[in-house]
Amino acid sequence: MASERETLVLWRRPLTTLLYFTLQLISEAVRLTTLLLTNTTLILTSVVLSAVVVAALHFEGPHQVYVSVLQDKSAWCLYWLGLGVLSSVGFGTGLHTFLLYLGPHIASVTIAAWECGSTHFPEPPYPAEITCPESGGAMSINLLAIMSKVRLEAFMWGAGTALGELPPYFMARAARLSGQQLEDEDFNELEEIKEKDDLDLWSRAKLLMHHLVEKAGFFGILLCASIPNPLFDLAGLTCGHFLVPFTTFFGATLIGKAIVKMHIQMLFVIFIFTKHHLEALENLIASIPEIGPALHAPFVDYMDKQKLKLHSGGKEGGPPTDSMVSKCFEIFLFLMIGYFVLSIVNSMAQQYHKDVVEKKKAQ
What values do phi and psi take at 71, rounded to 5? Predict the structure, then answer.
């Protein structure tokens, strides 16, 4: 059955995969609706909050200034929170939103800070384009000044990645409390690894993280969450299986991902895109044998247009959309999102097949 499930991909069995995906989508929608309708407290709370929000938005008064600011801030925070969830929630392959969104955003703010000699451009949420302030003297630009400019969105993205790690934890916890066997390929593979003596490096890493989380508790989870870790799903499964308290698991995960790891990633991007490092990068590209000059020219052209837009408010010099670098990034972004959507369809179709097989076995 596992081999049959692996053939459920759009490029091998498109019609069956789309059918199973649709049925799984309907099943999840029905399950979520039923869950919401049976939770009267949640319904009442949602109705009251919705009424308060509608009243605040539609009744005129001095409070509208604060409502407008709160609305913009909330939308900005939810945007980055959502991107963080998409990065780690486990739909398909996961969308690498740091690489596609947050990293480039931090880089653009860093470049703007050095070019403008100030971080006094608008606070988040930014306008469509970041532009240098028309007034206000130059200030000392350093790592801390730039970090303070992007800390809110970075923290929200990190918090989103922490929220995205909760499904494996709750799934394993529910299976353990109900006395059922956890049907997860990663967890079952881990159980098989424990019985082996001759392990490869990847298997040893899985086993090490499992033991670290199991034995060290809060600090083990914190350590695993504080570094780039493609195996962190196993930490959630392990914590859920051993009934680690939710506050311990989520608290350590939130601190590790939204504070420790996020500051490491921020520092790395800001360090790379500081003015002198960017100049060194341009020289490095130019020094690449044979292809260096061909790559160097469009890269410098793109950077020059970006800097021109900072000083012209995006009105002069034309947008950099005709740049080869910009076009390549847009194509890369389109391909990544497309592959992410395909992986979601395949994953949900395979999950529906798995559920059907398990129901037949239970009968």
Answer: -65, -45
Omega cis (within 30) before 62: no
User: pTM of the prediction?
Assistant: 0.78
Distances (CA, A) of 219 to 145, 159, 216, 248: 30, 18, 6, 9
Predicted confidence (pLDDT) per residue in 180-217, tens digit: 666 666 666 666 777 677 777 777 777 777 778 877 78
Determine whether 134 is exposed, middle or buried from the number of CB atoms within 10 Å of its CB (0-12, 13-18, 19+).
Answer: exposed
What's the length of the chain? 363
DSSP 151: H
* Cβ 92 vs Cβ 21: under 8 Å: no
Structure tokens at 311: 């000083």
In this structure, are residues 113 and 149 in contact, taking their beta carbons and an 8 Å threshold? yes
pLDDT-based confidence at residue 133 (cuts at 50, 70, 90): confident
pLDDT, one tens digit per residue, over 296-335 is: 888 888 888 878 877 765 454 444 445 666 778 788 878 8
What is the distance, to the nearest Å, from the Cα of residue 8 to the centroid of all Cα atoms in its chain?
A: 26
